[in-house]
Amino acid sequence: MQRSRAVLALLLLAAGPVAFGQGTITFGNASYVLSASHWDATPDADLTGVGNGDQLYEAGWWFRIQGDTRETFFPTPTTQNYTGGTARIAWVDLGGRGLSVTKTHTILGIAGQGGVATTLSVTNNGASAITLHLFQLIDLDVNGSAGGDSAALVQPFNTIRVTDATAGYCEWRGHDAVGYLVLPFGATDVSAQLRDAAVTNFANTGLPFGSGDFTGGLQWTLYLSPGASETVQVYLNCNESLVPVSLQRFEVD
């Protein structure tokens, strides 16, 4: 059954600040939308104009400070601004945990292909050092359909390529991620692992992924002393490779 949403990281149309919830950024035919219901455990998002239909269903972020008993989704931010091809989103005190966070999305797209780059920066404003685990969820519907997707790891650079059985592909990479998890959409998918009441760590499992409805997650582990900052970066391209053809090598086990 085809689903009707899409997501991941970025983009441009609605100029000016957005107070509580919906923002759109565009470049050429490409458009990325964060809906008003994006800021919860089922983070709706849409990415269109970079292939047939809507390439994304959900995309969002969770965090866990070492010692917590579960992961927590990023709630509605303090500020949002969607201007041109860029979205700037900020949390002054994420979850009341002394973390200042800024997230920037940038989109590029031409003639049925394009991508989104996301940069997320975190500062520890607390009085003690912490170990922070960050997680990104993505639910891709390549070629605008939920089923029929397969996925494999492309080397170098630990890029995950998701390919539709009919047409089209998307590539997804998290710079310096320490782990990934891939599971089929359903009651125990990646989103379910992050929103349950237990600690989750991604141990590089689920690839290669056979034909089905793809969900994936990336994890980073950051060590932050008081006042310290760290940055993570994520890239998503559809129908345009993140890895030059001359450097591609496919892993099948």
Radius of gyration: 17 Å
Beta strand %: over 45%
Specify the CATH class: Mainly Beta
Determine the mean pLDDT: 89
How many strands in all?
19
Task: State the share of residues found in helices, binned by percent.
Answer: under 10%
Name the poorly predicted regions.
1-21, 245-253
CATH superfamily: Glycoside hydrolase, family 65, N-terminal domain
**How many domains make up the coordinates?**
1
Name the structural class: mainly beta
The CA-CA distance between the termini, in Å, is 29 Å
Sheet of most strands: 11 strands, antiparallel
Quaternary state of the chains: single chain
CATH architecture: Distorted Sandwich
Globular, elongated, flat, extended or rod-shaped: what is the shape?
globular
The name of the CATH topology is Beta-galactosidase, Chain A, domain 5
Brief description of this entry?
With 253 residues, this protein is mainly β. The protein is built from one helix and 19 strands. It has one helix at 190-195; strands at residues 17-18, 23-27, 30-34, 45-48, 56-65, 72-73, 79-83, 86-91, 99-110, 113-124, 130-140, 149-155, 159-164, 169-175, 179-184, 209-212, 214-224, 229-238, 249-251.
